[in-house]
Amino acid sequence: MNRYWLIAISVATLLGGWSAPAHAIDELWERSIKAVKGQKIYVPGVATYQEKVVDKEGKVAEVTEARFEIENSGAKVRAHLLKCTVDGEDVTQEAREDLEREANVELEEFDFEMPYCSDDPLSNAVGIQEDLKMINGVECRGYDFIYREEDHDFKGIVWIDPTSALPLEISSIMTSVPFKEDGVQVMSLNRTTHYIVENGVWKIKNESEDVWVKVRVLFKNVLAVIQTQTDYSNHWILNAS
Fold it and tell me: Residue 32: which region, alpha, beta or left (left: phi > 0; alpha: psi -120 to 50)?
């Protein structure tokens, strides 16, 4: 697995109880599908990324931090690396080519779709959470759903503001594990994304991932967790006229 794989994916883009299946989705779910698809797309102009590699005893083995500027370059959205450090050492120049290439590939393939907003929304909605969850001072309703991303299966919960019908949190866990990529065995992957509404504008706030991996080192397998956090700011409108 390329060491910059998770950074690239994060620039492009804790599950509670799994509720009983619902045979019909309610009015809020349908409103949310329409609300999300009717939104203007606000792209984060700056992405600040931190990655920690933690061993099974909880000791931090390595910390990588990167800051990107994301801009509209003609007809494309492009990422430019501002700075990258590993354990405090500046590696911007060494990392620039790999990071920018992989981040821009992800951005070119990224369709800015919410994972629960498929063409057939009833096909991936599987249940409704019994309890509400307070997010940003709003009591949100949770909906269970399943989806597929890059040949991997996920199950998730989207928490929706009942007034705006916009999602404020999406949490998901990969179910098609374990799998191998570039010699690394991925044991589990959890992801949580938060959104905010400011001055009537709905936009992504941050995203975190915990990825448990198993790597063969010499004659033994080493288990570690890669913890990432990406904060987004300076949003701009995609394809603004």
Answer: alpha
CA angle 161, 164, 169 (to 5 degrees): 35
Backbone φ, ψ for residue 55 (5° rounding) = -80, 175
More confident residue, 11 or 86: 86
Six token digits for residue 113: 């779709």
String of DSSP letters for 13-52: ----PPPPB-SS--HHHHHHHHHHHTSPPEE-SEEEEEEE
State the chain's maximal CA–CA distance in angstroms: 58
Taking only the tens place, the pLDDT of each residue in 143-196 is 999 988 878 889 999 999 999 999 999 999 999 988 888 888 899 999 999 999
- Percent composition of the chain: helix, strand, coil (DSSP 3-state, to 5): 15, 55, 30
| pTM of the complete model | 0.83
Which one, of 14, 2, 9, 8, lies nearest residue 159 by Cα? Answer: 14
How many domains does the structure of the chain reveal?
A: 1
